[in-house]
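Bit of a strange request maybe. I'm writing a small parser for structure token strings and I need a real example to test against, not something I typed by hand. Could someone generate the tokens for this chain?
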Amino acid sequence: MAASETVEIAIVGAGVVGLATALRLVADGREVLLIDPNEPGSGASFGNAGTIAEYACMPVGTPAVLRALPKLLLDSDSPFSLRWPALLQLAPWLVRFMRQSLPAATRANALALAGLLADALPAWEDMVGEAGLEDQLRRNGCLYLYRHLSDFAAGAGGRAMRAGFGIHQEVLTPEKVAALEPGLPATAAHGVYFPDSINVTDPAMVMRRLLGAVSARGASVKQAEITGLQVEADGVQLSGPGVRIKAGTVVIAAGARSRALAAQAGDRIPLETERGYHLEFQTDAPLLNRPVCPVDLGFYLTPMAGRLRVAGTVELGGLVAPPNPRRLALLDRGARQIFPRLGSPASQWLGFRPSLPDSRPVIGASRGSSRVIHAFGHGHLGLTLAPITARLVADLIGGRGDPARLAPFAAGRFGR
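Reply from user aminoacidic:
Good idea to test on real output. This should exercise your parser:
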């Protein structure tokens, strides 16, 4: 049996949320150990669309999605799909998701996310300075592209809700869309422009910089798999193959793999896995000036360093199955609708997003013990919400937390 290590704070999960939390805690003078079975920042934190989307308060589940859900789930080429062999496992989650897609729940979920997103950019600006990330950011907004008038009309409710929350958005005529993105094919597409949005030019480099900043400030990193969590009177015992760690406080930030550890802490969280995909195409010059989301296709086209990344859609279906070639083909076909002359993809990727029925992350203390802090379930917003989540976790551990601020994200909202 491995000898037990001891540490003040152990963070299980070294994705962007774990890295940002470690950076915030070491700034508070805490002793921190990051634990992950894989290279830090190599999962969904690497493979995302690269957008810091402070505007993205609309949950995945809405009345429009609920009305279209049978069609979406039966069409394997829709932006929202599931792996049918996983249907029995997914059924309880889908029931919760449908309830959270009703009008009152949708508004409550959007309001909660908007409150968290309101502080996302200031928290990011703080992290940019601490980790030396300025050269990795592009501050020129994000564009939703509505290629069909029916989609533009269907988006009116979301636009109105964002406006009510004070989110900065500009509705664009086709002429203004063409002026903003001259590389797009000439169409009659309308647009919604989010001028405050930021995107990163290389998510992998951002993760490396964060890791470097965390390590330089004294945090330790351990490559190990944590499968066991036991709350004890004087701390929390973590265990896994060949590893035993005793921590005064544990932060669960393991993304899509957080559910089992949360359950051992005393919290049954209806966390499921969205299988996220991306393709990348090498480009001699940028095809776009900013991330563009053709809403009918359900993915983002993001210009990155020397390449175009095509990332998005939703596929429910767990952590085990291999990549679904139909989803990759869907991204490829969709990208060629916008840029027909793209060459062959230079790379492809499958990763796992932690998805909750109400699209809200779980942030706050476990019901089983205040020594266990949850920081997972960010869905499509992990990159965006990592720094503000880190700030909330550090404030909670430091005794500065506001319980009312964390109430919408508490584990207890799901019941026993």
